[in-house]
Amino acid sequence: MKKQFHRKDVADIMDSVARTYSEFNYNGHMEELHRLHKDAFEYAIAAGPHKWSRVHCPQRRYRLMTTNVAECINSCLKFARQLPMMTLAEFIRNMLQKWFHDRHAAARSMHHQLTDAAHLVILKRVKKCNYMTVNPVDWNIFSVKLKGNQWTVNLHLKTYTCNKFQMDHFPCSHALAAARERNLDFTSLCADYYKRETLIDAYSVPIMPVGHPFSWVVSSDIAS
């Protein structure tokens, strides 16, 4: 949006409409975008809201709003791209070998059921619970109030009226307030994605050295 229309106000609204969890807020932001810049509105629609809108994404995002892995790799290869092809390939393999080792070691050193990053988010959200009023509706459903606003949390279905709980698969502060009312373990409300064991598994297969070409075992059909 910044490159296409060179307007910060348009980019700011686009950021809000992309990140919102609510269909109601999405529609409101899109109406604002349409009033501000019709071409930007049509550009966003043509790009496909399911590709950039959190509330319309057909897959789980797990709180992430970027899939820009390719650009991250490119930045790491800024100077290595000048190397000969085989040297570049070995550079990439060696880089990934180090990344997998370091991340696997870091994951194994964590002391909580959740990853360190997820654990810190939980701690920050728990602090907000002290300012909330929680009223049970039944064993699983709770009304949570804060500053005149009211939300409904279902701990069994892991849903919340603003959609944040069910879309992130990670408890918001209102869900944590309800869970504390029932003395539930907060970890039980988190998807496996956020857990330490999942992170360990993600980096459990090491990237092995390939050795010198003279040591390679090449099948006859490939060699020919």
Can you lay out the helices and strands and say which pair or pack?
Layout: H1 2-5, H2 8-19, H3 23-36, H4 38-47, H5 49-52, H6 69-76, H7 85-108, H8 116-129, E1 133-136, E2 141-146, E3 149-154, E4 159-160, H9 164-168, H10 173-181, H11 196-202, H12 220-223
Antiparallel strand pairs: 1-2, 2-3, 3-4
Unreliable runs: none
Secondary-structure-derived class: alpha+beta
Strand order of the largest sheet: 1-2-3-4
So what's the overall shape?
flat
- Give the CA-CA distance, first to last residue: 52 Å
Task: Round the mean pLDDT to the nearest integer and report it.
Answer: 93
Give the SSE string.
HHHHHHHHEEEEHHHH
Number of strands: 4
Keywords: Metal-binding, Zinc, Zinc-finger
InterPro entries: Znf_PMZ, Znf_SWIM
Organism: Acer negundo
Protein name: SWIM-type domain-containing protein
Short descriptors:
Znf_SWIM; 224 residues; Znf_PMZ; zinc; alpha+beta; zinc-finger; 4 strands; 12 helices; single chain
Description:
With 224 residues, the protein is α+β, with helices and mostly antiparallel strands. The chain contains twelve helices and four strands, in the order ααααααααββββαααα. It has helices spanning 2-5, 8-19, 23-36, 38-47, 49-52, 69-76, 85-108, 116-129, 164-168, 173-181, 196-202, 220-223, and strands at 133-136, 141-146, 149-154, 159-160. It has a four-stranded antiparallel sheet with strand order 1-2-3-4. Strand 2 (141-146) and strand 3 form a beta hairpin. The longest helix is centred in the middle third of the chain and has 24 residues, at 85-108. The radius of gyration is 24 Å and the shape is flat. The relative contact order is 0.10. The mean pLDDT is 93.
